[in-house]
Amino acid sequence: MASEIPLDIEEKVEVTHVESKSDIDGIDWTHYGDDPDTIEAYKTIMSWSPEERAQQEKRLVRKLDVIVMAMAVLMYILNYLDRNSIAQARVSGLTESTHITPNQYSLVNGIFYILAQTPANMILSKSRPSVFLPVSMCAWALISTCTAATKSFGTLLAVRFILGFAEAPFFPGAAYWLTCWYTKAEIGRRYAIYVGGICISSAFAGLISAGIISNLDGKQGIAGWQWIFIIEGTITVAVAIFVSFFIPDYPQTARRFKPIERVLARMRIDSDGGPSDIGGEPTMFQGFILAVKDYRTWCLGTLQLCITNMIGFNFFYPTLMGLSQGMGYKNKITILLLSAPPYMVALLFSFCMGVSADITRKRVLHWEISFAVTAVALILLIALAKIDSPGGRYASTYILAMGSFAAYSVAYPWVGSLMPRPMTKRASAIGIANSLSNVGAFLSSYVFYAELGPTYRTSWCIVLGMTAYSAAMVWFLGWQNKKRNAELDVIEEQYRTGEIDSVTLATMPVDAQLAARTGWRMSN
Asked: Which domains does the chain show, CATH number per domain?
């Protein structure tokens, strides 16, 4: 039975499977290493009963949450705080000091990072996150601080362009790093928390900026908007140095974990997505080519592009609140304070959606619910655009934040689920998807172009169209996954009954090998 659109057709590999005493479910688990500590850890784990192993896995996951998850969220909060600081600075005097027009602001806000994402993730798949991520953090913080020294459109544009290359590795890199530690059943709620860093930073950005403007504006001859970049950049550098001492690398090399924890961490991921020796591990370039040739990479990429446009209002939210036909608020402090609550509501909703998606394993359903909530908010904003109802428009942004950020949080778990192996392909696919996501961020600067204000009715219509496309694309991918899973059912049964032997299986696509040997299926 063949799929109309073949999956992983370029990933066929020749692997001779050798049965051994350590063989479990058709997979040779000796690739964990042959040093005495690893061998002893492996033997200990194999001696556990299912109940003991489940208990030990829970302990390990708790440790991962305290170390891996906490570090990822902390870094992402600061990442988005730096990215979002320009929106706060705009209502605090940035445009007046640098003499830029609203359209120039759109360009400054949009000329962030696009091309650096994919090569950064390719490098990360072969390097150490404990070095790569903190160095990236320090670089973007120092460059962001330099924004305070800009005096014109040209210098501001140059700093933002360079800042994009410094920040590029972080989000897709950390997203890929999390998939190396958590299983499909765990990653949804973790991604919801991780992406919730956007909501937390967006909320606190307003509160922090309000405090800075009210207390430091004009002090030492420095404007309030300049203090925003200086203080937030300094904090980020300090945190980058701090986290560099605690970030673990990958399960096979994490020095802060005991040998038994490292082996158990690898066994969990291998059981979930298949061991890394299935299909071999191609080079960075080979993994990139595999990702480019897989149509799902581009489906997910265009999906991310549209979803990023759905949350694109985030960079213009303080400005929208100050427009007479937006929310109509005039006081800078009021605007900054009122911009916080919608993000906190969005954080709670996104987390609930992530937990529910993990429990039910129905990610497509939760994605479609998120799109439906977003569509309701956009229809309200379109309908209220020419009505004198600032309260109604403000309430609609709560709903918009809930739906759009929930959709964003569901997106990345699907990449790891659809492309579990090879790791270099998964890293490249996440990088490509995030590059297209940032094309969406660039386009959102023009979706909310000055000429489309002050109601931005046309902007909301464009975002509604992208929401509809996203819903259709998710349905299409879910339908394709169901078809492929049916084919994998047949392959697994044929392998179990001996109709397909190990030699023949080794020539089949990686997803077929995973299905036959581990029971792996694509997530829906």
From this structure: 37-274+283-518 (1.20.1250.20)
